[in-house]
Amino acid sequence: MSVWYAFLDLFSMPWLSMDFMKNAFLAVLLMAPLFGILSTMVVTGKMSFFSDALGHSGFTGIAIGVLCGSAFPICWAVLLAVAFALLFSFVRRRTSHASETIISVFSSTAVALGIFIATMNGSSFTKFNRYLIGDILSVSSGEIGLLAIVLVLVLVLWVFASNRLVLTAVHPQLASSRGIPVGGYETLFTVSIAVVVTLAMNWVGLMVINSLLVLPAASARNVARNLRQYHLFSFLFALFAGVAGLVTSYYLGSSTGAVISLYLALCFAVTFCLRKCRG
Amino acid sequence: MKHTHCNCGGCHDSCCLKIEDLSVRFGTEPVLEHIDLHMHCGQIVALIGPNGAGKSTLIKAILGQREYEGKIVFTPAGGTAQTLRIGYVPQSPAFDRGDPISVQDLFACCLTRRPAFLPLGKSFRKKVLESLARVHGENLIDKRIGDLSGGELQRVLLALALEPMPQLLILDEPLSGVDVEGMETLMQMLDEIRKTCDLSILMTTHDFSMLERYCDRVVLLSHKILKKGTPLEVLDSEEFAEAFHMGGGGR
């Protein structure tokens, strides 16, 4: 980390003078490719609503973790979100309801259970606020290491499985006729989303995390013409919004996650207009 | 035609797909019962039948996506039984119009292990162009799959189904959503492909206007095989009239 700190000091930017800002900056740089890449598949696979629901189940996990007196409630959140993802895949394959109905069933149950546990015996809810809003400035060097590991894992997954994931998402019948185990790949992807969403919830906040998983790719779709551009634009939008959001929140004092989301929304609005112009 | 003996009923000496006593049920309800069907190389066989007759189910069974009782055996000319390589053109391809996936990307996702979001190189592009040339669709390579017209999409999926070259090509309702001109082009293309590539083609259709001109055999299906034979034999049969509620023989 000291190398990183020394490197940033070379630029002598006022917003990078504090160590916690240097940490947050590094975290943003790691999160940009992570969310940029994942969001392309979330949007292509029409899972935006699902990833939103995953965040909710993560919250329930945290409530359970706190109730059990765990030092790392986030581990509970990851476990519960993965269980949620698996259970969701299982139920969806066995009913004729639309997936959004099933997602709603799951996510409202998760939220209700979370609030029920969190407020049991009249405890105050305020200690959970940090998970709702998130605080990227609190990111520690250990957590940055974890983020880096997750990023590497996702990149490996992408190099080996992205072709099949794309095919599964755009045309399941075609995929399965070419011998791809569609169910397996769907599950693999939902589980990775579950892990990433809950880990990142600490820093970005449950209420805005979904914007990071949907908006970069949604904006990229407005202008990209092929998969290469799709990934590239999605990454660039996430990077731009992340860095700009961090700087802006430093000067204005608002929550970083929220500012990042607003920048992403701006990206979407601009690319949407560009698409209109292109015809 | 190469396989003149094909239509004479005998199965020896020619490569052959045999479906023997195939049955499929959903729970306890039988969907397909005792299907016997032989197909030879170079033949175009049309599968017709009213909605819910089990055409798609039969295709899924052949593709191995649905459990069935009975046997599906493929024997190449003069050889022993082996695993059948099937090319499949799915029905009503429902691509999202907004997906930024080009035709080349779609090929990459199906054919290579190298990730499609990285540059794929000139040799792969050349391969895709060659493949698209089979369906006269080289100009489609950089189009987004959501921007293709119905006919163009059919051709792209057809080119994809021919890669790697299958022994049996299955098309699920290839003529629906395609205009008359598109149908003609597609059927001529299939005719060309079966001659140059020496494969058999099985297609389901609701359009009977093309049967006589392009198909060798027609199979009328409604849970079981009601009638099979040449297009004329089937279209003029009592069973055909009954299945489609047309009353009286003929069309």
Structural class of chain A: mainly alpha
Strand content of chain B: 15-25%
Largest interface: A-B, 28 and 34 residues
Largest beta sheet of chain B: what is the strand line-up? 5-6-7-3-8-9
The CATH homologous superfamily of chain A: ABC transporter involved in vitamin B12 uptake, BtuC
The CATH class of the largest domain in chain B, by name, is: Alpha Beta
Q: Tell me the series of helices and strands of chain B, N- to C-terminal.
A: EEEHEEHHHEHEHEEHH
Low-confidence stretches of chain A: none
Looking at this structure, what is the CATH superfamily of the largest domain in chain B?
P-loop containing nucleotide triphosphate hydrolases
CATH topology of the largest domain in chain B: Rossmann fold
What's the total helix number of chain A?
Answer: 12
Q: Approximately how much helix is present in the residues of chain B?
A: 25-40%
Q: Please give the number of β-strands of chain A.
A: 0
Can you tell me the CATH class of chain A? Answer: Mainly Alpha
CATH names the topology of chain A as ABC transporter involved in vitamin B12 uptake, BtuC
**Tally of domains of chain B:** 2
Please give the CATH architecture of chain A.
Orthogonal Bundle
